[in-house]
Write a structure and sequence with these properties.
globular; 182 residues; Aminopeptidase; alpha+beta
């Protein structure tokens, strides 16, 4: 898997495959990347981080050709971004289809708008190609304008708007399914 070796992207951004030793720091990036903590909710941070860490530990035990977690560095040994890839299977009336699904793209707030998300997405394409796929899929909340902009600028397009019961009754939970094919 030489394509997952350290590879410089945009100035000094380095992307590599995560190891089990990286899980605590990845959990920190995901916790701060998706949540904000005010003076009244600071106590939630360790609880959320512990749950995320446990989920990551379980996912990283998946076969290497079905799961990959990538991490980004901009300074030595400081993880500032992450993304996960999973091979999923959908079943339709005409058979089953395997596809690569991206999730949990997160960049620490102080490092956003520096090309880190783009570098992670580009590395995901390399991994998908190595796995024998020619497309990537992901969901983004319809209200997440920043996320939608990042994905659309990186060549993703709207495949469908998900409208399940949950998204119809919970404000802010409608999702877009995006696709990138090459």
């Amino acid at each position: 898997m030489s394509s997952l070796a350290n590879s410089p992207k945009k100035s000094d951004i380095i992307i590599r495959k995560a190891t089990k030793e990286d899980i605590p720091k990845i959990a920190e990036v995901l916790t701060y990347g998706f949540h904000s903590f005010n003076q009244w909710l600071w106590w939630l941070y360790p609880v959320l981080k512990m749950g995320i860490r446990d989920d990551l530990s379980q996912r990283t035990s998946s076969p290497q050709n079905e799961y990959c977690c990538l991490i980004a560095f901009k300074e030595r040994q400081k993880i500032i971004g992450t993304i996960e890839l999973t091979v999923r299977t959908s079943y339709h009336w005409h058979g089953k289809k395997e596809y690569v699904y991206l999730s949990n793209l997160a960049v620490l707030p102080n490092y956003r708008r520096q090309g880190i998300a783009t570098a992670l997405l580009q590395k995901c394409e390399e991994v998908a190609i190595n796995w024998g796929f020619n497309s990537l899929y992901l969901h983004v909340l319809a209200e997440n304008e920043t996320g939608k902009t990042v994905y659309l600028r990186n060549g993703y397009s709207l495949k469908q708007v998900d409208t399940d019961l949950y998204s119809l009754f919970v404000v802010g939970k409608r999702r877009w399914l995006l696709e990138k094919t090459w």
